[in-house]
């Protein structure tokens, strides 16, 4: 998944304002999107100065300290990244984003969410052009494509090319050269660009942050900064939502405001439907609706599609909580907790390998025995990927359709063999997990839930469901 972030100070902000502590809070709010490493890069707005970089492996709270972010105190803009790796050497420090590189137009920093489908073609091309790569990550590759395009454009950029932070033409050319999937935040010395691939596969939203000052006549809100982030849950309190970056859109964010610079010819929209099912935080907004509401709707439809006579409805905490509420409301069966989740164990799905995922699962849940004994229970979960979580528990309704195909757009499901639903039907899964029955939400049910309250014109709505039906947004080189 990965979480990406950019903050630019508004020209109206007070001189003493430091955006670094706010950026750390925002990355903490995006922690669920990646726990392997985190990085923040800041610019002080002077062309000739270096970028300040704070990076490390582990959780946001382990990477940053008051001391280390002190280096970012004069920043007028920062970009940040929480990493969940799908491609690339997992432990190498040079894989920790944002990537910083010198280009013919000065320093740039790149933070990327997604995975380039068919990246080997672009990799071959850049290597054959004489540009070396120090990692096998797509994100470095994107940085080098931008850098090469800047070098090619030097002659047309005019005399001041070396002091202009405007690289919009080169970014537009880069967008045309790479297909899917990317949401990007790119920083030059004086501005930030927010970019989304033409299918809109991974999310990216923009907001404006205000500070509240007490004055004699009451409180006055004044613009403090602009923010771009993978999810709106990263927006600090008091942020006014501006817009989602459209599929194929290039947006410039500077001290004067937010400007849409370029829009690619739209492709069929393929926003990852699993952002709604599992990945995103329940309080985030996509397509004009809150994720929590969609999950609740999934639970209601699941109750209609797969009813069962039981005493209580319960949940696998936390991402299935909203679907469970929906199932309980629709079926009128009371909700009772049966599992206690240890909040100090991270999300098992985003652990980098299966061994770590299984260990995380065994540490994750305790059973509330008094609520279980002599009860007929329907247990709701959001999805079954590999069956790791489920092997520990029983009796299931799943608030998403069976996950049968791998993802090539940034989610670490390496092969069909790993996916329990790709090899077994519902009865076989029930037997394998020791459940009395297993039923999934249908794909029609999920699409209905996602579309019910979306506040977008119908033609702007479209979702990637490739891991559910095997139909990918573009053809994949296997
Ligand atoms: S294949 Fe599945 S997980 Fe991957 S982008 Fe599409 S919907 Fe999301």
From TrEMBL:
One GO term of the biological process aspect: purine nucleobase biosynthetic process
Cofactor(s) for this UniProt protein: [4Fe-4S] cluster; Mg(2+)
The organism's place on the tree of life at top rank: Eukaryota
UniProt-annotated binding residues for [4Fe-4S] cluster: 272, 407, 464, 467
Binding residues for Mg(2+): 319, 381-382
Pathway(s): Purine metabolism; IMP biosynthesis via de novo pathway; N(1)-(5-phospho-D-ribosyl)glycinamide from 5-phospho-alpha-D-ribose 1-diphosphate: step 1/2
Protein name: Amidophosphoribosyltransferase
Taxonomic source organism: Panagrolaimus superbus
Origin organism lineage: Eukaryota, Metazoa, Ecdysozoa, Nematoda, Chromadorea
């Amino acid at each position: 998944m990965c979480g990406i972030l950019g903050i630019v100070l508004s020209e109206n902000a007070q001189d003493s304002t430091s955006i670094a502590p706010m950026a750390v809070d925002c990355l903490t709010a995006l922690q669920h999107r990646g726990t392997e490493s985190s990085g923040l890069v800041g610019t002080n707005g002077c062309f000739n100065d270096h970028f300040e970089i704070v990076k490390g492996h582990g959780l946001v709270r382990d990477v940053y300290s008051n001391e280390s972010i002190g280096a970012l105190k004069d920043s007028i803009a920062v970009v940040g990244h929480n990493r969940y790796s799908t491609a690339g050497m997992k432990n190498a420090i040079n894989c920790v984003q944002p990537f910083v590189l010198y280009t013919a137009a000065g320093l740039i920093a790149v933070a990327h969410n997604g995975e380039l489908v068919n990246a080997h073609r672009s990799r071959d091309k850049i290597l054959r052009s004489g540009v070396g790569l120090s990692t096998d990550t797509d994100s470095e590759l994107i940085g080098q494509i931008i850098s090469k395009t800047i070098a090619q454009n030097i002659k047309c950029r005019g005399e001041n090319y070396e002091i202009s932070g405007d690289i919009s033409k080169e970014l537009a050319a880069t967008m045309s050269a790479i297909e899917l999937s990317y949401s990007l935040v790119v920083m030059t010395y004086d501005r930030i660009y927010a970019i989304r691939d033409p299918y809109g596969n991974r999310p990216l939203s923009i907001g404006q942050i205000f500070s509240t000052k007490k004055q004699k006549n009451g409180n006055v809100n004044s613009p403090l900064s602009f923010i771009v982030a993978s999810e709106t849950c990263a927006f600090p309190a008091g942020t006014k939502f501006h817009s989602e970056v459209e599929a194929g859109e290039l947006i410039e964010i500077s001290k004067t405001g937010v400007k849409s610079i370029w829009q690619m010819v739209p492709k069929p929209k393929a926003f990852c439907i699993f952002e709604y099912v599992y990945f995103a935080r329940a309080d985030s907004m996509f397509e004009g609706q809150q994720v929590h509401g969609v999950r609740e709707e999934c639970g209601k439809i699941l109750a209609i599609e797969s009813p069962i006579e039981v005493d209580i409805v319960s949940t696998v905490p936390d991402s299935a909580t909203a679907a469970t509420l929906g199932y309980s409301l629709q079926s009128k069966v009371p909700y009772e907790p049966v599992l206690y989740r240890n909040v100090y164990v991270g999300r098992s799905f985003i652990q980098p390998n299966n061994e770590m995922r299984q260990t995380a699962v065994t540490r994750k849940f305790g059973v509330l025995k008094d609520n279980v004994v002599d009860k007929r229970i329907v247990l709701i979960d959001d999805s079954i990927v590999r069956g790791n979580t489920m092997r520990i528990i029983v009796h299931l309704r799943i608030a998403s359709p069976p996950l049968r195909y791998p993802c090539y757009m940034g989610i670490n499901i390496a092969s069909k063999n790993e996916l329990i639903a790709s090899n077994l039907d519902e009865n076989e899964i029930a037997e394998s997990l020791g459940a009395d029955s297993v039923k999934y939400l249908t794909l029609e049910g999920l699409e209905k839930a996602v579309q019910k309250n979306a506040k977008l014109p119908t033609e702007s709505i479209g979702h990637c469901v490739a891991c559910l039906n095997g139909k990918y947004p573009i053809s994949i080189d296997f």
